[in-house]
Amino acid sequence: MSDDKEYISYNNVHQLCQFSATRIKNFQPDLIIAIGGGGFIPARILRTFLKEPGARTIRIFAIILSLYEQTAESGEEAIGAKVQRTQWIDYEQCKLDLVGKNVLIVDEVDDTRTTLHYALSELEKDAEEQAKAQGIDLEKNPESKTTFGIFVLHDKLKPKKADLPPEIINDNNRYFAAKQVPDKWFAYPWESKDIVYHTKRAMEQGNDVFLP
Question: Which residue out of 4, 90, 107, 111 is catalytically annotated?
Answer without folding.
Answer: 111
